[in-house]
Write a structure and sequence with these properties.
Structural class: mainly alpha
Strand content: 5-15%
Order of helices and strands: HHEEEHHHH
Number of strands: 3
Largest sheet: 3 strands, antiparallel
Helix content: 40-55%
Distance between the termini: 42 Å
Length: 126
């Protein structure tokens, strides 16, 4: 990115969001059809290249692993249930093979993931 665009307040403001979702910020001139171009006072400042959905799930899992400070498979049962709730809220299980991918990351079976999801739905807790 050019020096002026790289230091623009809009770019700085959206950087944490773009990083959290696994996107990439690029110069607006390089934007492709699927990119989101953001403008400030009528001037294109930055384009955001969104990740593929499958890459987004991998990014979410890596982020949760960083937040917990260890591999997800090493977490205790209660924390794994919490991770599943977060992933459900983010739409991870609407992706094809989402349950299988999460189960592998947590070191549990698909059946266990479904149990965690059903337990949350029936427990009335948040």
């Amino acid at each position: 990115m050019t020096g002026e665009a790289a230091a623009h307040p809009l770019r700085e403001a959206v950087a944490p969001l773009v990083d959290a979702m696994g996107g990439e910020m690029i110069d607006p001139e390089r934007a492709a059809d699927g990119d989101v171009v953001l403008s400030w006072e009528g001037r294109e400042v930055v384009a955001v290249r969104l990740p593929r959905l499958s890459a987004s799930l991998d990014h979410m899992l890596a982020d949760l692993e960083r937040r917990h400070g260890r591999p997800l498979a090493e977490l205790d049962r209660r924390t794994k249930q919490s991770v599943v709730r977060v992933l459900e809220e983010r739409g991870a299980f609407s992706l094809r093979h989402g349950v299988e991918t999460v189960a592998a990351a947590l070191g549990v079976s698909r059946f266990t993931i479904y149990n965690y999801l059903n337990r949350e739905g029936g427990s009335g807790t948040s």
